[in-house]
Amino acid sequence: MLNNTKQAQVAVAMSGGVDSTVAAALLVKKGLRAIGLTMKLFSASEAHSSTNCCANEAIEAAERAASKLGIEHRIIDCRKEFNEMVIGNFLSEYAKARTPNPCVVCNKSIKFGLLMETALAMGCTHLATGHYARICKRQDRYILAKAKDKQKDQSYFLWMLSQRQLQSTMFPLGNYEKQQIRRMAAALGLEAADKPESQEICFIPQGHYSQYLKNKMDVPGGDIVDSSGKIIGRHQGIANYTIGQREGLGIALGKPQYVIGLDPLKNRVIIGDDQYLYKDIMDVETVNWSIKIPSRQIKAEVKIRNQHKGSPAFIKPAGGRSVQIRFIKSQRAISPGQSAVFYRGDLLLGGGLIK
Questions:
Q1: Is 170 annotated as a binding residue?
Q2: Active site residue 124
Q3: Which of residues 206, 237, 256 is at a domain's end?
Q4: For a tag site, which of 48, 52, 66, 238 has the least CB within 10 Å?
């Protein structure tokens, strides 16, 4: 990807964790001039109450890692942009009874947006990260692909990246297994070698969604209704419910009931039998293609959430940046606001937001 590795300077997004630290180490081993960049996303009080990847402790860990590797390290203040673009979007989507994925927005706007632009302005040719993903060149297109380690693959969270962003991105870990990365970290004597991974959203302390939303926005109670519109209970704020939810409904009808719909206009939570959760057609908007934009219907594997295995479907252009997706087999709990990502084998063709 780089013609003159001895002269190239590459920025590395460093969080203090094992993946970004080894990514930096691999670049140094290749002879690249690496510079570590760590995003500051929170104020001192917010960082103290969070277990996020960019809190004060993590920033200090990234500084120590950069020092051990013998590379320059800088802290980039992204607090304003992160609050506006990521947290603001997160709250706005929940207010509309949608289920957002803030990591997707953060990757597009902050990590591969603000941080990448900062790196390029510093004279770096690329921004490298510790994501488990790959980039393939197909004719004149840069196409995302799944990582070698399919259990750790993070391509799903990267579908929003533009061609310009992909062109300036490096994923050093894409061809490695996670256990290989941990062994490399241990061999280098890095403190991150045995550091546990965080599965939480970075700005929600201990993963307490309900409390976070209650603190940040008005979540008035309302009616719980069945599929016919009959009122059968009260909910604790529509933002606290997601499609497919069964626990925490606070009602007993003698049979399992699930959230099958959310109506933000009437502030209603709609519940029903499991069978009503299955759909074979969904509309997807804000579509971004890695491949050349298709002019006709195509077939692909579509994932409707990160842990979803993907299911065969037909993707039909619907004008502008919208498509209609028809699954061969009905899918359970399709949630508006979540990302629908299209694959063919390991290649990520594109993605969008479920309408």
A1: no
A2: no
A3: 206
A4: 48
The per-residue pLDDT for 47 is 56
Among 290, 344, 335, which Cα is nearest to 101's?
335
Beta bridge pairs of residue 222:
235
pLDDT in tens, 139-188: 999 999 999 999 999 999 999 999 999 999 999 999 999 999 999 999 99
Give me the CATH number covering residue 265: 2.30.30.280
Is 161 inside any structural domain? yes
Structural domains of the chain, count: 3
Q: Does 311 appear as a known binding residue?
A: no
DSSP helix/strand/coil, 144:
strand
Mean pLDDT of 7-14: 91
Q: What is the pTM of this model?
A: 0.93
Residue 257's alpha-carbon distances to 125, 294, 334, in angstroms, are: 54, 40, 16
Domain that holds residue 320: 278-354
Asked if residue 2 has pLDDT above 60, the reply is no
Q: Are residues 138 and 16 in the same domain?
A: yes
Those residues whose C-beta lies under 8 Å from the C-beta of residue 211, and which sit 6 or more positions away, are: none
Residue from 101, 116, 100, 106 nearest 85 by CA: 106
Written as six digits, the tokens of 262 are 């959310």
Cα–Cα distances in Å, from 182 out to 29, 147, 188, 190?
A: 16, 16, 10, 10
202 is catalytic: yes
Tell me the chain's radius of gyration from C-alpha atoms: 22
- Rounded mean pLDDT of 193-200? 76
Q: Is position 219 annotated in a ligand binding site?
A: no
Residues with Cβ within 8 Å of 180's Cβ and at least 6 positions away in sequence, in order, are none
Two tokens at 69? 């590797």
Choose, from 53, 54, 106, 124, the residue flagged as catalytic. Answer: 106
pLDDT confidence of residue 59: 93
Co-location of 99 and 157 in the same domain: yes
Tell me if 62 sits within 8 A of 36, measured CB to CB. Answer: yes
Report d(CA 170, CA 189) in Å as an integer. 24
